[in-house]
Amino acid sequence: MSSHKTSAPPLLFHLYRGVTALLAPFAFRKVAGKLAEHGVTPTRQRERLGYASQARPRPRAHDGSPAPLLWFHGASVGESLAALSLIDKLSPRLPGAEFLLTSGTASSAEMMAKRMPGNCHHQFAPLDAAAPVRRFLNHWQPDAALFVESELWPVTLNATKRSGARLALVNARLSDRSIARWKSKATTAAFVMRQFDVLLSQNPQMGQSLIALGADPEAVYPSGNLKAGSAPLPVDNAVLGAMRTDLGSRPVWVASSTHRGEEEAIIAAHKSLLKQFPDLCLLLAPRHPERAEEVTLLTQSAGLSVARRSTGQPLEKDTNVYLADTLGEVGTWYALSPIVFVGGSLAPIGGHNPFEVAQAGAAVITGPGYFNFAETYPPLISSGGAVEISDSDSLAEAVQNWLQDTAALTSARSAVRSVVEAQAAALDGVVDLLIDTLSLAPALKDN
Predict the structure, then answer these.
(1) For residue 442, cis peptide bond before it (omega within 30 degrees of 0)
(2) 218-237 burial, b if ≥16 CB within 10 A, otherwise e?
(3) Pairing state of beta strands 339-342 and 252-258?
């Protein structure tokens, strides 16, 4: 276990702290407006200024002894789900512990409200400025703070460290651009990295990047991707049954989390597949449903018929493409089809989460641009559970192969599930490491 000490704050940190303090009212106006657009109440908007909307729980174990309050921060839905996977594993190991989960988006708050356990509380994260962070920490007084993936907020990290809490960076994943930006501010980067007592990277390469930025090598551990341990996405069985009735005996494949620049190849692949499988249905779920009109026009201009879910258009026998332009239903679509193309991989986006597909029992197709999941896709591909394609022709070929060869599809579905189960099992070691390095048993201080 590392016992490093943090150095004195560099000049750039002091400048940043001063500037964020001045800009906080303007930043709040902007983020509060975004939350208001999604129906978030003024009271909850003020959580971004550090004003809590809930009382702090007083965690106690069954014998009445103090238990820890653990704070997890994940910027948006994906990070919050990764945090939940850790909370689910930590909870039985820490009787009586309570968990605070913060995020920045309305969609993540909505998702957490549906999926959080009873000992977990959601707040919007304070802005990275002195006053909001001070209010937040004075109220919640976390024993430990775990930051998920890629957001490094210097004021928040330093203030949390000074409060006596121990800090972890988990599922660490910084973009190449972010790494380059931090390297250009080497002294400040090292100061920020040294706030953490432990840093868990998604792969060894990212671990080396963290060390290069100034993290203590003794505090850095590769942990795999925590999203492997996430609970399966929820399935609406009523919707699933209705879709199966509408489809009847028609085969179906799913293209999920697609981005601009990808739908053209997907639609072209589907049009090609229709020559051999005339009753094949494509369920197309764009990453951003607000692009539905654009995707509808692309589909129609290719000469294919389309039905939009958001407008209640029915899935008819002659519907070529069913456009699932809604939020929160992806788990149902994965349960509907044994073949799923995961988007963000034909365009230079970095790919999206294949674990949710695997947990639903479907085989995976991906483009080459899955660099955000560099530790995940190679074992899936080598196991036969996933196939990498490069364009519309190879996409059509991959779907065709699995539609024609049911034994190969069954084998692929089994392989992808096995790989994910093995990665999820490895997370037990991560839990042991966090409990040790964050001194979670017993609690750090008397609550």
Answers:
(1) yes
(2) ebbbbbbbbbbbbeebebee
(3) parallel
CB-CB neighbours of 217 under 10 Å: 12
- Tokens for 376, please give them: 């995940």
Give the gyration radius of the chain's Cα atoms: 23
Phi, psi of 39 (to 5 degrees): 85, 15
Handedness of CA 292, 296, 299, 301 (dihedral sign): negative
Cβ proximity of 113 and 92 under 8 Å = no
Residue 1 has pLDDT above 60, yes or no: no
Q: Give the H or E element holding residue 330.
A: helix 330-336
- For 348-385, write each residue's pLDDT tens digit: 899 998 988 998 999 999 999 998 888 789 999 999 99
Residue 300, helix vs strand vs coil? helix
d(C-alpha 336, C-alpha 241), whole Å: 9
The two beta strands, 306-308 and 339-342, are unpaired
CA distance 291 to 259: 9
Q: 226-265, pLDDT tens digit by residue?
A: 777 777 888 999 999 999 999 999 999 999 999 999 999 9
Q: Which domains does the chain have, with CATH numbers?
A: 11-224+428-437 (3.40.50.11720), 237-425 (3.40.50.2000)
The string of DSSP letters for 395-410 reads HHHHHHHHHH-HHHHH
Cα-based distances in Å from 159 to 131, 132, 144: 10, 11, 12
Full-model pTM:
0.76
Q: Are 188 and 13 in contact (CB under 8 A)?
A: yes
Joined tokens for residue 416: 């992808």
Residue 33 CB partners (closer than 8 Å, separation 6+): none
Q: Are 336 and 357 in contact (CB under 8 A)?
A: no
DSSP-derived 3-state class of residue 182? helix
Its sign, for the CA torsion 299, 301, 304, 305, is positive
Query: 327 and 294 in contact (C-beta within 8 Å)?
Result: no
Residues assigned a catalytic role: 79
